[in-house]
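ugh ok fine here u go
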Amino acid sequence: MMLQRDWEEGTVPPPEAVRAINHLAGLPSAVKESLAGGLDAIFVGPGGVPDLDDMGRLRGVPLPSGRATWDAC
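structure:
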């Protein structure tokens, strides 16, 4: 699995990205291994899922929990 930087090269990452990376690093080894086995990459950067390439269709769409939309992710 690859952790993909999604902010401009040569700039400081946003604090939210640093927190996300630190959170991933702090996961138990078994969880990290499970993620690594099931994902090609994790993209970390500013914005939510709808801001990623080809994901704009998810803007305003509820998450399976129904308590938020993909914009919060």
